[in-house]
Every structure is written in structure tokens, then in C-alpha cells.
Design goal:
Shape: elongated
Order of helices and strands: HEHHEEHHEHHEEHHH
Number of strands: 6
Distance between the termini: 51 Å
Helix content: 55-70%
Structural class: alpha+beta
Largest sheet: 4 strands, antiparallel
Length: 452
């Protein structure tokens, strides 16, 4: 039988290279792919991500609305002017003396300077100010939630990039081992010491592993696009490798616990509490609609006829406005405000429960991954010993090649699973600090670099 029918590896290598180049051609057209360190990525994301910019501007707008609401406590000064054309001559200024008539004209120019000062509003102005301040706190909490999500997202990309690199190394080592075996078996086939089926079996394992390596490269590209979105740029950016930890993960991993203090001060709960305070102020403002409004005013008027000879006089006084009937608007507003307050109160309880649950889940995932990794680590060691023994048995001709390949593949899968649990453990820690509201750029770097 001709041996040339088994020369698949070179062909498959050319196919793999073609696929690789075709997949990365758009990227090559833009120039060489960019990579970025974790510290630079965190700094860029916090400064350039559109979501964080939007939340910052929203907080600035909320701060401005606080001053807008507080302006209701201050006097209001205005200037007005006007021109009137009458059918018949009219008095320019009111009559001040009996029998003495002011000048008449059919064209009258007038202007006035007016100051109005609120004296009593039933608490409406103060309620609006408290509602605006609560909205500012809500915007600040929302900005912090966006910041935490951004930090967690960048950390996840770098952790997953490290995981893909580990998988790539495992698969590459597997391919090298299989290719070495393929070359050895090709020589044995020429000598007639093995069957073509054994060589084909090894080749199938090689191509399967190469398929896995292409999948890993595709996932790396996905991470590059995801990181670019977090950084607020258009082109893909690769996570640069971070320095590995010398020993076990950081000691913070062993101190995970659910803290009531963290739950209360987390941005998720603070946002719900701010919404509650805003609803509370809204109820106060709705109640103030039933009270009269009292304000003082002072006006200085200038009037003249067509000759523009201005005559001025002042007037001052106090006005009171008592609402009597508005079609049920005030009652409906009061009921709506009361319902909004009840909804906001329930939202605070829900936020606290959600926060506590998410923290407990993150802690449980961390503990579970840690325990499973310890068992899998022992399983990998045992499996490696078993595979080594079976490889010796195959060399002695006591078992078939297919049995060895199956066991080697299972060992590779166990190694990948064991490493995956290490990264699941790290991701759970990252998520825990994000949910707790204590995640900072330095903490992200510490967690990522704690990967052994």
C-alpha cells in the first residue's frame, strides 16, 4: 500500500494557515494588532469608555439641578417692557389726585423692574431641593455601578486571556507530542512494524488538536474586540501578558465572607436608598400643593407716551394664592406620590436582598471552584501516572494505540478542566469585590496577578 496517502499533516497545516490568515486579514489591513497592559487598560477604560462618560455627565447634570431647586429660596428679579397702541387716548399713569388728570396718549411705552420673594410655600421648595439632592446621590451611585462593571469587565478579559494562553500551551504541547509520535510511526510503517490504521489514528488526533488551537485563536480575537469595546476604541486590542504569581492566589481569597456593612454601603443599595429619599421628597411636595403660597413683591414702573418722557413710580405688597379646585389634580398627585414612596421602599428591601444573594453566590462559587480544583488536581496527577504506565504498556505491545490516545486525550481534558477551575475561582473573587462595591483598579491588578 502506498504511504503517500498519509501525508495529511503538511496539507492540513497549509489549510490551517490559510484559515488563520483569512480570519486575521481585516486586522492586518488596519495595521499591526495592538496590545495593552492591565494597568493601562484600566486607566484607559475609566477615562475613555462612553458609558462612564455618560454617567459622569448625568451626575454633573444632577448636581446642576440641585442648584436649580435651591434657587427657589432666593428672591427673583426680572425686567419687563412693552408697547401698547390704543384706539382712543388713554392715561399714561394712574390718577393720584382728585380732579387732576394725568397726560393722555394713544401710544404708551412701559417698562418695570420687579422683585418677588417667596415667604411661604408649604415646604414645596425645600421638598424639591431634597428631591434634587437625592437624584444627585442616585446619579453618583449609578456612576459607581458603571465604574465597577467596567473594572470587572476589564479584569475578566485579562483573566480569560490568561486562561486561553494556558489552554493554548497545553494544546501546543499535545500537538508537538503527537507530531513526534507521527514521525516515529512513519518510520515504523516503512519497516512494516505498524499498520496504516495506527498512523491514521495519530493523524486524526493531530488534526483534532489543531482544530482546538484554531478555536482558541478565535476566542482570543473575541476577547480583543471585547476589550476594545471596554476601552472605547474601534480597533481590536489584545491583553498583554501579566506577570504570574510565584505562589498560591492572594490571601484575600481565603477571607471571603458576607458582610452587612458591605451590603448597606454598596452602590446598588445606595442607589435604591436615593430613589427612596427622592420619592419621600416627592410626597412632601405633593402635600404642599394643598397649602397656600405667600410671596412679597416690589415693582418700579416706568411709563410714557409717544414723546418718551418716562414717568416712574413704585409699588410693593404681598400676594397670597389659595388653591380651591383644580379638578382633582392635587389628590391624584398625592396618591401617586404615596404609591411611588411605597414602591421605592420595597425597592430598597429588594436591593438589599439582591446584594446579599449575589455576594453569597459569589462566595459559594469561589468555595466550590476551590474545592473542585483540589480534587481535580489530584485526579490530574493520578491520570498522568496512569497514562505514563499505559504508554509503557503500549511500547511493550500489551495494549493498542487507540487506548493510549484515548487516555492521553482524557488527561488533556482533565488538565484543561483543572486550570479552568483556577480561573473560575479568580473570576468569583473578582465578581465578589465588584458586587460588594469595593473593587478598585489596584484590587483588579492584585486579583489578576494572583493567578499561580
Amino acid at each position: 500500500m502506498k504511504q503517500t496517502k498519509f501525508n495529511f499533516p503538511p496539507m492540513m497545516r497549509r489549510i490551517a494557515i490559510f484559515i488563520f490568515i483569512a480570519g486575521f486579514l481585516p486586522l492586518l489591513a488596519r495595521g499591526e494588532a495592538e496590545s495593552i497592559s492591565l494597568s493601562q487598560a484600566l486607566e484607559t477604560a475609566l477615562g475613555e469608555n462612553p458609558s462612564i462618560k455618560a454617567s459622569t455627565h448625568q451626575r454633573e447634570a444632577a448636581r446642576a439641578r440641585v442648584w436649580e431647586a435651591k434657587s427657589g429660596f432666593l428672591p427673583q428679579l426680572s425686567v419687563t417692557g412693552g408697547y401698547s397702541k390704543y384706539q382712543e387716548p388713554n392715561i399714561i399713569i394712574p390718577i393720584h389726585q382728585i380732579g387732576v388728570f394725568p397726560p393722555l396718549d394713544d401710544q404708551i411705552y412701559e417698562t418695570s423692574v420687579q422683585m418677588r420673594m417667596p415667604l411661604f410655600t408649604g415646604g414645596r421648595v425645600s421638598a424639591n431641593a431634597r428631591a434634587a439632592k437625592a437624584s444627585l446621590h442616585e446619579s453618583a451611585a449609578q456612576e459607581e455601578l458603571v465604574r465597577l462593571a467596567l473594572l470587572e469587565g476589564v479584569g475578566q478579559v485579562f483573566i480569560q486571556a490568561r486562561q486561553l494562553e494556558d489552554n493554548r500551551q497545553l494544546v501546543a504541547a499535545r500537538i508537538q507530542s503527537l507530531e513526534r509520535r507521527y514521525r516515529e510511526m512513519s518510520l515504523l510503517l516503512k519497516e512494516g512494524r505498524i499498520s496504516p490504521a495506527d498512523l491514521a489514528l495519530v493523524n486524526a488526533s493531530i488534526e483534532s488538536s489543531r482544530s482546538d488551537s484554531i478555536d482558541i485563536e478565535s476566542k482570543k480575537m473575541e476577547l480583543a474586540f471585547r476589550l476594545s469595546q471596554l476601552l472605547g476604541v474601534e480597533h481590536p486590542v489584545y491583553p498583554a501578558p501579566e506577570k504570574r504569581a510565584a505562589g498560591s492566589p492572594a490571601e484575600e481569597q481565603s477571607s471571603l465572607s458576607v458582610s452587612d456593612t458591605i451590603v448597606i454601603t454598596s452602590p446598588l443599595v445606595l442607589k435604591a436608598q436615593a430613589q427612596f429619599q427622592r420619592a419621600k421628597a416627592g410626597k412632601k411636595a405633593a402635600n404642599s400643593a394643598f397649602f397656600p403660597e405667600i410671596s412679597a413683591f416690589a415693582v418700579y414702573n416706568y411709563r410714557s407716551g409717544a414723546d418718551l418722557d418716562l414717568i416712574g413710580e413704585w409699588v410693593a405688597g404681598v400676594t397670597i394664592r389659595i388653591p380651591l379646585f383644580e379638578g382633582g389634580r392635587r389628590l391624584a398627585g398625592k396618591r401617586a406620590a404615596r404609591a411611588s414612596l411605597q414602591a421605592a421602599e420595597a425597592s430598597v428591601k429588594s436591593a438589599r436582598q439582591e446584594q446579599s444573594t449575589r455576594l453569597r453566590i459569589a462566595a459559594s462559587q469561589w468555595q466550590s471552584a476551590r474545592n473542585r480544583r483540589e480534587y481535580l488536581n489530584r485526579a490530574v496527577q493520578s491520570k498522568a501516572t496512569s497514562v505514563a504506565a499505559q504508554q509503557e504498556m503500549y511500547k511493550a505491545g500489551r495494549i493498542s494505540l487507540s487506548e493510549v490516545l484515548v487516555q492521553e486525550t482524557e488527561l488533556l481534558q482533565l488538565q484543561i478542566q483543572e486550570r479552568a477551575l483556577s480561573y473560575t475561582e479568580i473570576l468569583a473573587i473578582l465578581n465578589y469585590y465588584a458586587v460588594a462595591g469595593t473593587l478598585t483598579p489596584s484590587k483588579v491588578q492584585e486579583i489578576v496577578r494572583s493567578i499561580p
